[in-house]
Amino acid sequence: MAEEISFDQARERIDELKVLLDKYSHEYYVLDQPTIPDEEYDQLYRELVELEEKYPTLVQNDSPTQRVGGSLLEGFEKVQHDIPMLSLDNAFSKEELQDFDRKVSQILEDQPYTYHCELKMDGLAVSLKYENGKFKQAVTRGNGSEGENVTANVKTIRSIPLSLKEPLTLEARGEIYMPKSSFIALNQQREEQGEAVFANPRNAAAGTIRNLDPKVTASRNLSVFLYSLAQLDGKEVQSQSEALALLDDLGLKTNPERRVFESIDEVWDFVEEYQEKRTELPYEIDGIVIKVNELDNQEKAGFTVKAPRWAIAYKFPAEEAETLLKTIEWSV
Ligand code: NAD
């Protein structure tokens, strides 16, 4: 479509897409009640990206391609992130992963690099701060520069330690999620009580963490996987794999399903392996996150306005998501 469209038609379609995507984002991020599947959102988003690439003068500052997340919920204190919490660019095919690899290799100018592959948890991004080893604050990603202070709720999650095994000051980031079994039980209970059910475990987790009553959060079984170390005082790590190993040593929960690879072909094998295994996992994933492993390489690659240039999220295809939904329905 983006090939044949004129400037005026593109302007009109961009305005339409912006209104639609803003509406869907509000339902997804603020209300935790999406009305369309993620795949449909991703298609509309991609159409917008292609139109903006064709006509860069039509890119507006408030375009969904230039912003992270949605607006913040009233009722929670707003907290500024020291380092922005960004999104990830997406890939939907092996070819797009190969394109990503070509770009990385160009940016790094023949510097050797490897890829750290992780499962893409379908939950809610959160930043956890520890001071001298003591849990201090938890903040949602929000709009990327400001998030909601959800410390009281996050304290009720049993897999988040209140003290680290070493008295370090750090900020770890990760995904809060609801295991599939807890999601099914919660929806069953809500149905019995005549309450609206959650669309998926991601929305259930987000709605639970952004509930104003910590007792409600405590009554639901949330968990966490930490996937990055945004700040660290008094110690150094050289790579994503070292950062996750340190988080493990400190007692912070990370996902063990991760591996380092030298080539994008090996990365693709990992993607295919987990595309098969995803229905067996006790939590929902919607893809694989591929990150350049070495921190000096990450620094060299840098960021766009919305996402790191050293990482990409491969999103599983739609039929897989439908199969998963069916699996959940059947097991109820
Ligand atoms: P994203 O979900 O595509 O990727 C970024 C996020 O991935 C991070 O913020 C983090 O929360 C998460 N993540 C999970 N595992 C990770 C790991 N191992 N390492 C790093 N990050 C990890 O991007 P987004 O900006 O959060 O959301 C956009 C997506 O949300 C869309 O692509 C769409 O699928 C969905 N969405 C759906 C609707 C709808 O109406 N259905 C509306 C808006 C957004």
From TrEMBL:
Q: Which residues participate directly in catalysis?
A: K120 (n6-amp-lysine intermediate)
Q: Taxonomically, which superkingdom?
A: Bacteria
Annotated coiled-coil segments of the chain: 7-61
Q: Which residues bind NAD(+) per the record?
A: D38, E39, E40, Y41, D42, S87, L88, E118, R141, E175, K291, K315
- What biological function has been recorded for the protein in this entry? DNA ligase that catalyzes the formation of phosphodiester linkages between 5'-phosphoryl and 3'-hydroxyl groups in double-stranded DNA using NAD as a coenzyme and as the energy source for the reaction. It is essential for DNA replication and repair of damaged DNA.
Family that this chain belongs to: Belongs to the NAD-dependent DNA ligase family. LigA subfamily.
Q: What is this protein called?
A: DNA ligase
Organism classification, top ranks? Bacteria, Bacillati, Bacillota, Bacilli, Lactobacillales
Q: Which gene encodes it?
A: ligA
Q: In terms of the whole protein, what range is present?
A: 1 to 332 of 673
